[in-house]
Amino acid sequence: MFKKVFLGCILGFSTVLCSAQQVRPTKSSEMYRELKTLKHLPKVLYLAAHPDDENTGLLSWLVNDRNLETGYLSLTRGDGGQNLLGTEQGAALGLIRTHELLEARKLDGAQQFFTRAIDFGFSKNTTDTFKQWDENSITADVVWVIRKFRPDVIICRFPPTAAAGHGQHAASAVVAEKAFKLAGDKTAFPEQLRYVNVWQPKRLLWNTFRFGAVNTTAENQLKVTVGQYDAQLGMGYGELAGLSRSLHKSQGAGTQSVAGIRTEYFSHVAGEPAKANLLDGVVKTWTSKGNADIDQSLDKIIAAFNFNNPDLSLPALLALRKKVMAIQDTELKKDKIKSLDRIILSCAGFMGEAVTNQPEAVAGNQYNFKVNLISRADNPVILENVRWLNQSENLNRKLSKDSLITIEHDIRIPSDAALTEPYWLARPAVDAATFSVPNDTLIGLPEAESSLNVTLGLKIGSEKFQVKLPLSFKKLDPVRGDVVEALRMVPALELKFTQPLYLVKDNEDVHLSVNLKVNSEQKFSNGKLNLMYNGERLGGADVPSISGKDITIDCIIPKAKLVSIRSNRLQLDANYVTDELTYNKKQVLIQYPHLPSLQYFAPATVAVMKSDIRSAVKKVGYIQGAGDFIPEFLHIAGIQVDVLKDEDFYGSTDAAGGNGSQNRLSQYDAIILGVRANNTEKKLGRWMPFLWAYVKTGGNLVMQYNTNQDKTVDQLGMYPFNIANKRVTEENAAVTFLNPNHKLLSFPNKITADDFKGWVQERGAYFPDQWDAAYEPLFEMHDTGEEPLQGSTLYTRYGKGNFIYTPLAFFRQLPAGNAGAARLFLNFLSAQKN
Predict the structure, then answer these.
(1) Which domains does the chain have, with CATH numbers?
(2) Would you say 321 and 337 are in contact if contact means Cβ atoms under 8 Å apart?
(3) Which of 156, 666, 712, 798 is the most buried (most CB within 10 A)?
């Protein structure tokens, strides 16, 4: 049910909305492109399943060469993938990939959209996918985006067949065709029509491809030439596409910037077939809409545009604005006025920001802000008024050309101001495959616009504009220079367990600690910290007073409280109650150099593994891969973990003439390779001989999954095995023990079928499909209807030691608190002790 209408633009008094933290003029070359885009009416929507599925070369060409408004609709935010940057998974990874897409769109110029679909991980066909996704609700989301964006042509990246290579890929094509046919039907999703009108695109196409050995192109398909050189960019569109795609850093999607033209192929799916080009039969000009005077004005503005003095175009642009405001097509008017106003402010050289000197704020508190404004045009820009959230001030002040003005003001944040977090994470998900969106009209947006803004009333010539400046934080970084980011709203008090996971035996008390982070100057009195399980209070503490600084509370949950809880995984919830207020959230802050600071809030919870989890190792070496939770888990389990560096492998020889580095490696009960270490650690080729020697002399080497993409070492094992794109995506798939009495399944934990219960997302991926006879497979498993796979764990003796290759998804199971996975992994580490 759609609700809470949001009017993005009030006609007659246009609002310029700022997607960044500052309103800044674009480069004159970009202004020129935006003017040419304003002249072209058609729009194109590209549609696929995930971040990095988009054809950035085609997007770059459509935007910059054809000057068409172009959008990319990714059904998901990439929540189910792997992360080459760090340990973030799930929602946190989806947030990273959302903003990587936004950074990519800043380069290629396209717009970005999403549905509510959650990427639940790899699926093998559409049947599997739609067991998770609600096909109707995702189709509704796509219809909503079509009706809002109003594209004339929709292009799918994938077909609805096995050639798509991924069930979610194929599902994106299925949903696209359904939505294409329903978007113009007023009986389909009629609740949307309170806010948008029906819209029927002209055609739906499939952008065919050559991916490896799969070639779906044909010479009888529609073809376009892309990749041309653009002097204003200083590169070809293929080169720009490489830069754009390489911003998908969490996926390791770095792509070459390839110069030169190439051919894109398209197969007809639905609608009116195209004979000569993508836009056959599409209304392209203002003249075709009965507004020849607008076409004529734009032609003159474009012909006379001065790249060195774009403000010379302002009188003509302001006159054009009056003409656009007079057209009858309300939707076209709203759309084009928004674009035109951005061009006008850029031509005026207008910059505005509303900044404070601290990154976080609490609702109800007051902060000092500076509004910095400047214009660089001879045509005067008049600041008529300023609205400081709930207070208005009339100024009628002229912005002198190229002279910065600063206005200081204390702003009290409304007491009901929402926390700063992505709108799709503000509520618990509907289910494992669908986000809950509190305001249905937000669907499709990559992020919500700020609700905390300083609003400027500007006048340029006789035209009036409203410009919203989001409340922002600004600092001078000694390396990065000026950093301007969103002011992040946080609760007055946050809670966070000091460990992400606790291990406890069945007959032990649980000792844990909770940090209470104070973000406000207010005093908290007579509070109570509660530790809850399924609504029952298991423990906690009275907290007489908190004032001004963080505190850590140590708590004990008596073993008697745990006796009746049969699960081997408990999720404990913490809350702090005082003065009839309850605080129960923890901040998740994500910071990478290529992204703004990202924040969301999660319940203050922790997983407790309540099981008989034994280990026979005390000290392990760890080679970092793409980032996983294993070192932290091992620390929690009481095992010393050393991250191995160059000096651990090849240092000076010892006094007896032996290899000193080999002596250093021999101190470890086991050495672990992090996930995708062969793809990320470029020194691995030099280290492998030392690792093999370590095993041969009695060591234990445990290697997690790798892929064949960007390999450092061709042969990872002492005996060869071949990594394939084989996987078991069903997390509850039956597991057959090929040798139930194998030592890896017997010591120090006896592994049974129960240890494979409660796994999340998948069993594992990138299983070997061929291996030397020296290896012994431990398990057999498979997805429904598929051939059994035995490559989930390979074991061999080598010399006096052990080598284990295991692409089982321990990097997902251990953070989730899966005790069975923990027991199995510790068995692998203990192989040399048995």
Answers:
(1) 11-38+290-417+452-478 (no CATH), 42-282+436-443 (3.40.50.10320), 493-610 (2.60.40.10), 619-833 (3.40.50.880)
(2) yes
(3) 156
pLDDT at residue 13, as a whole number: 38
Contact of 572 with 495, CB cutoff 8 Å:
no
The pLDDT of residue 86 is: 87
Closest C-alpha among 540, 547, 551 to residue 517: 551
**Alpha-carbon span 615 to 608, nearest angstrom:** 17
- Kindly indicate the confidence band of residue 661, based on its pLDDT and cuts at 50, 70 and 90: low
Integer CA distances (angstroms), 415 to 361, 418, 499, in order: 11, 9, 32
Name the percent of the chain in helix, strand, coil, to the closest 5: 25, 30, 40
* Cis status of the peptide bond prior to 748, with omega within 30 of 0: yes
Distance CA 280, CA 283 (A): 9
User: For residues 597 and 359, what is the distance between their CA atoms, to the nearest angstrom?
Assistant: 10
Q: Which residues contact 105 (CB under 8 A, 6 or more apart)?
A: 72, 111, 112, 244
End-to-end CA distance of the chain: 61
Q: For 339-362, what is the mean pLDDT?
A: 97
Hunting for tokens 């002492």 — which residue is that?
A: 718
Pick from 441, 545, 558: nearest CA to 508 = 558
DSSP tag of 419 = P
Question: 546: which strand partners?
Answer: 524
Average pLDDT, the chain: 93
**How far apart are the C-alpha atoms of 316 and 318, rounded to whole Å?**
5
Highest mean pLDDT among 15-19, 300-304, 522-526, 644-648: 300-304
How do strand 463-477 and strand 481-486 relate by DSSP bridges? antiparallel
- CA dist., res. 251 & res. 730, Å (int): 22
Q: What is the pLDDT of residue 439?
A: 83
Closest CA to 642 of 663, 670, 614: 670
**H-only helix segments in 65-134:** 90-108, 126-132
Q: Which of 465, 272, 482, 499 is nearest to 357 (CA)?
A: 482
Cα–Cα distance measured from residue 702 to residue 304, given in angstroms and rounded to the nearest whole number: 68
Least confident of 480-489, 564-573, 710-719: 564-573
CB atoms within 10 A of CB 315: 12
Residue 627: CB atoms within 10 Å:
20
Contacts of 776 (CB under 8 A, 6+ apart): 738, 739, 742, 794, 795, 796
Cα gap 552→499, rounded to integer Å:
12
Q: How far is the C-alpha of 801 from the C-alpha of 692, rounded, in Å? A: 9
| pLDDT score of 253 | 77
Parallel/antiparallel/unpaired status of strands 670-673 and 700-704: parallel
Provide φ and ψ at 174, rounded to 5°.
-60, -50
Helix 292-304 to helix 314-325 angle, to the nearest 10 degrees? Answer: 160
Q: How far apart are CA 761 and CA 696, in angstroms?
A: 36
pLDDT-above-70 percentage for the chain: 96
Token pair belonging to 755: 């240890």
Reported pTM: 0.91
Whether pLDDT at 544 is above 80: yes
Q: Give the separation between CA 195 and CA 241, rounded to whole angstroms.
A: 35
Q: What is the DSSP string of 237-289?
A: HHHHHHHHHTT-GGGT-------S-EEEEEEEEEESPPSSSTTTT---STGGG
Contact yes or no for 127/112 (Cβ under 8 A): no
Cα angle, residue 520 at apex, residues 515 and 525 outer, rounded to 5°: 70
Per the model's pLDDT, the better-predicted residue between 243 and 254 turns out to be 243
Q: Is the model's pLDDT at 658 over the cut of 50?
A: no
Rounded CA separation 324/319 (Å): 9
Q: 217 falls in which pLDDT band (50, 70, 90)?
A: very high
Q: Which residues on neighbouring strands pair with residue 401, listed in sequence order?
A: 375
